[in-house]
Amino acid sequence: MNPVNLQSIKLSKDTLNLFVGVQGAFIVTISPSNTADSVLLYSSSDTSIAKVRKPGIVSPVKAGTCIVTVKNKANTVSATCIVNVIGIKLNKTLSSLVQGTSDTLTATIIPSTIANKNIIWSSSDTSIVKVNALGIITAKHPGNAIIRASAQSGFVTADCRIYVIEPTVTGEAFYTDTTVNNVAGKGISFKFVNSAPYPVQILEWYVSDSNGKKIGDIAGSPIEILQPHAVYNSPVQFFESSLYTSARGGLSVCPLTVHFVYNENGAAYNMVFTYPINIILGL
């Protein structure tokens, strides 16, 4: 009696969408069922993405796509199943931000063939770092927190640890009596100390009164590039004392505000000082 040859191999699924840590499976059916060629071989086109074993158990390893093949020993009959292991890839997994600055995280669903590519963002500590629905993160307070991107379809996440550091610049405003063109007034100057290990661009500084009126400024963009651990002493700005007489309540009622705009490590800041004399702020 002649042996019965294998005619076909059929799999119950032609595609499996899996998450790392969650196995999947398909059922194998051979025809005819009484064939002598019933020993089947299982293989994966990329075992770094998913592995397969009899009777059709698929174990995902990492995000990506591979093809699982079931065939007979003679390699004359076979069937395949596409395995998509769903994952999220972030543009960065570790980052640092200066307090008060923002950055954007981008998340990509892998593989690209997955229909639902929606991402849900969250922060492990919103008092340190906040994140919105677009992946824009804002550094609120020194410390560190985990920003997590979760696939809306579930089961898969990716994390980025954010370290928030304090700005490394300090400033001091000085107010002195002075006279310009026989007009009594005050002179305002500013000392800016760069304790950062990188250059800081001084973009602008100006003085405004309580009504927001600009009293004076120094033109130029940038005014100066301050090298690491250097000190910048600004020119003196003059304003008339008569604008702030005791009848008007003096400077306690009509305060002056010094605005100092600088660029630190690619981020713009506006350092603000308000009267009285010799206010020292560490940002």
Shape: rod-shaped
Mean pLDDT: 79
Beta-strand segment tally: 27
CATH superfamily of the largest domain: Immunoglobulins
Structural class: mainly beta
CATH fold description of the largest domain: Immunoglobulin-like
Distance between the termini: 92 Å
Can you identify the CATH class of the largest domain?
Mainly Beta
Biggest β-sheet: count, sense, barrel? Answer: 5 strands, mixed
Radius of gyration: 34 Å
Task: State the order of secondary-structure elements, H for helix, E for strand.
Answer: EEEEEEEEEEEEEEEEEEEEEEEEHEEE
The amount of helix comes to under 10%
- Output the number of helix runs: 1
Number of domains: 3
**Binned strand content:** over 45%
- CATH architecture grouping of the largest domain: Sandwich
Point out poorly predicted stretches. 217-221, 275-283
Provide the fold topology.
Layout: E1 8-11, E2 15-19, E3 24-25, E4 28-31, E5 40-44, E6 50-53, E7 57-60, E8 64-72, E9 78-90, E10 94-98, E11 102-104, E12 107-110, E13 119-123, E14 129-131, E15 136-139, E16 143-151, E17 157-165, E18 169-180, E19 183-194, E20 200-208, E21 214-217, E22 224-226, E23 231-233, E24 237-240, H1 250-253, E25 257-264, E26 267-274, E27 280-282
Parallel strand pairs: 2-9, 10-17
Antiparallel strand pairs: 1-4, 3-7, 5-8, 6-7, 8-9, 9-12, 11-15, 13-16, 14-15, 16-17, 18-19, 18-27, 19-23, 19-24, 20-21, 20-22, 20-25, 25-26
